[in-house]
Each structure stands twice: as C-alpha cells, then as structure tokens.
Design goal:
Its cofactor is pyridoxal 5'-phosphate. By secondary structure, the chain is of the alpha/beta class. It folds into 2 domains: about 250 residues, Type I PLP-dependent aspartate aminotransferase-like (Major domain) (Aspartate Aminotransferase, domain 2, 3-Layer(aba) Sandwich); about 130 residues, Aspartate Aminotransferase, domain 1. The chain is about 40% helix and about 15% strand. The chain contains 14 helices and 12 strands. Strands 1-7-6-5-4-2-3 form a 7-stranded mixed beta sheet, with helices on both faces. The two termini are about 40 Å apart. Bound molecules: pyridoxal-5'-phosphate.
Length: about 375
C-alpha cells in the first residue's frame, strides 16, 4: 500500500466489530480451543475456514492481524507464523516437491539459503543460486523442473535489488511460482503482489513488530495459495503465532508508517554522512543517489528504511575497533526496533562475486545528530 495517506488510515482503523463487544483493540483470545453446544455445530465449524475450533488452526487475535497484513500488502489472505523462518519454510515447502528445482537469489537471508541449498536436498529438492540483478542469469538457471523463483529485494547486507515486475512475468510465463521476502521494504514501501509476485513473506520480528519484543512471520497472497499452505504446512508443522504475540505485533503496526518515515530520514542522513568520508569505499543503501540500481529502486519502492552497510578497507581489526567503540549503536544482528544497531558481517557481492566484509548499521529512532556524532567518535577511536 504505497499511498501514505491510505497507509496511515489503514493501520489506525479496523472498523466496528460486534463480535468483540466493540473493543477497539482486538482482545487477546488466550485459549487453545473453542467449544460448541452440539456435535452438529462443531462439525459445521470444523468445515468452515472462517470459524474458530483450535488455536493451532485459527485464533481471532491472530486472524485480526492476518486480515490487517493482507490489507496492507494488497493480498487476499495472510497467515501468520511463529517466526519469519516459519513463514519462509512454509511458503517454500508448499511450492515444491521431491525432484523439483528452485532458483534463489544468492544474497537471500542466510537461513533461507540454508533451507533451500542444504536442508531440502535431503528431500531431493535442488536449488541454483543466482545474482538476482541479472535477469539473463535468472532465466538461464531455469530448468524444466523449476517450480519456484525465490527473491529478496533489496537483500539485507549489500542491498541489491531484483526487478520484481520482470521476474514475475518471466516466472509466470513458465508456470513457476514466485516468492519475495519483503521484510526490508515493509508493506509501506513495496507491494510485490501488485507486480505479479505470487507470495510475499515477512519477518514481523523486524519493523512490523518494531519494538524488539516479539517474533513472528507472515505469508500473504491469493486465498487459494495461502489456504493451501494453511491446511498443510501451517497446521502440520505447527509453527503458529501465539495470540499474545499477534496483539504485540498489531500494536507495532499502528505506528509502522510513522516509524518508517523516521527510519528513512535517519537512514538517508547516515548514508549521506558515510558517503562523504574519504576512507569509506562504498555505502550500500538503495535510497542513496550513488546506488547502482537507483532507477529500479524508485520504480518499485516508494521509500527506504534505516538499514544500510558500508565498506572501509580490509583491516578487520580496525573495523572491529570501530564497532566496539560505538555507543548509541548497540552490537547485534537484528533490526526493525527502536534502537540503533551495528554488526560486522561478511558476504559475497560485486560482479564477479567476491567475499567482502561490511559494517551493517541499523538506524533506529534516536536523534540523527547523536548517531552521526557516535559514528564520528568511533571512527576517530578506531584510527580512521
Ligand atoms: C531478510 C530477513 N528475512 C527473514 C528473516 C527471518 O526472520 P525471523 O528471525 O523472524 O525468523 C530475517 C531475520 O533476520 C531477515 O533478516
């Protein structure tokens, strides 16, 4: 949902719902099961996806969050999971069978890569990893048995993009399902379903929850595709979201567009500051005018968040000293909360691919001047 006015109204408004006595915030239905006055009514409920029987299948608090996320992403149906990886595993497993093949972007989130490139081999499902910026490479990797194109745009260390419209039409013409991990952009800044992508997955642990106090994931798409994985991977593997978590994430969503505006303003300021430093070799941030895919970024995203990275030489000890000297930026891997974070990471980037180390920064909600001052002090302390 890229229209900012629609976004603010959507997260703030649920409509009146008599089933919850008009409660403005959907109550936490802290119950594992629902009971019925008769066998006949229980049997009717069990056959109806819209009613509540057992909380591993359906729970009203979780359902309210699913409906809101489907609305924000422009999908017919959403299902929530215990974590982002729960959502990713379910979406991938529902898309492929033994003997079939996946094409996946080589910079996808590590555990998602490990699922496809490692774990699924024991089920005889094979994966080819490609540089997702190169549509010809994506096309060349497709085989007759390819059933899934797995994308993550932008990627979350070097912030490379895939052309989502062109990937969707390439895959659709060949009967291949597409999945996009949209965690970086959030529904505020990118809606892959509108480009013809089949399923969107998110780690709700990041921006959607927004307060570093809850883990969750979601799959959004057509009713048919999402209900199919809901009957199998969700219920059988059981990685379901708890109602308490759904309430926390719903609370986070209420301020998501507001927070994204501030993360973006901070991200832009920090990226521009880093870009101005003579000892910084490269800044990776899709909103920066020097980003090599800037045109594509503006064609498919309406904004950028607070996550970015930079490279500054290959002296690892000096980079470690820099990260250790930071004060506002706490040292940690995740992102999407209120607090700024830093980590030193390695990955393959460039063309041809080479192993590179980068400092990843997550710009939280603190004052920009404090954060830039913190970075300047740490650079000095580390001897840059
Ligand atoms: C881009 C991306 N996708 C998915 C995940 C997995 O989410 P979770 O940790 O909620 O399982 C992460 C977690 O860091 C992530 O960064």
């Amino acid at each position: 949902m890229n229209d900012p006015r629609a976004l603010h109204s959507s997260v703030a408004h649920d409509g009146h719902d008599d089933r919850h006595y008009g409660a403005v915030h959907t109550p936490i239905y802290d119950t594992s099961l629902f009971t019925f006055p008769s066998v006949a009514s229980m049997e009717r409920a069990a056959a109806d996806e819209g009613t509540y029987v057992y909380s591993r299948g359906n729970n009203p608090t979780v359902r309210a969050l699913e409906n809101k996320l489907a609305e924000l992403e422009g999908g017919e149906r959403a299902r929530c999971f215990a974590t982002g990886m729960g959502a990713i595993s379910a979406a991938v497993l529902s898309s492929v069978r033994a003997g079939e093949h996946i094409v996946c972007v080589d910079q996808a989130y590590g555990p998602a890569r490990e699922l496809m490139g490692g774990y699924l081999r024991r089920l005889e499902i094979w994966t080819t990893f490609v540089d997702g910026r190169d549509l010809a490479a994506v096309e060349a990797a497709i085989r007759p048995e390819t059933k899934l194109l797995y994308l993550e745009s932008p990627t979350s260390l070097f912030f490379e993009l895939q052309d989502l419209r062109r990937c969707a039409s390439l895959a659709r013409a060949r009967g291949i399902r597409t999945i996009v991990d949209n965690t970086y952009a959030t529904p505020c800044h990118q809606n892959p379903l509108a480009f013809g992508i089949d399923l969107v997955v998110h780690s709700l642990t990041k921006y959607a929850g927004g307060h570093s106090d809850a883990m969750g994931g979601v799959v959004v798409g057509s009713a048919a595709a999402v209900e199919a994985l809901s009957r199998s991977e969700l219920v059988l593997l059981g990685s379901v979201m708890l109602p308490q978590t759904a309430a926390l994430i719903m609370r986070g969503l209420r301020t998501l567009p507001l927070r994204m505006e501030r993360h973006q303003a901070g991200g832009m300021a920090v990226a521009a500051y880093l870009d101005s430093l003579p000892f910084v070799d490269r800044v990776h941030y899709p909103g920066l005018s020097s980003h090599p895919q800037l045109e594509l970024a503006h064609a498919q995203m309406s904004g950028f968040g607070g996550l970015l990275s930079f490279e500054a030489g290959d002296d690892r000890e000096r980079l470690v000293r820099f990260v250790d000297a930071l004060d506002y930026f706490r040292i940690g891997f995740s992102w999407g909360g209120y607090e700024s974070l830093a980590s030193l990471q390695e990955g393959r980037a460039g063309s041809p691919r080479t192993r590179r180390q980068a400092v990843r920064l997550y710009v939280g909600l603190e004052e920009r001047e404090d954060l830039i001052g913190d970075l300047a002090n740490a650079f000095r302390a580390a001897g840059f």
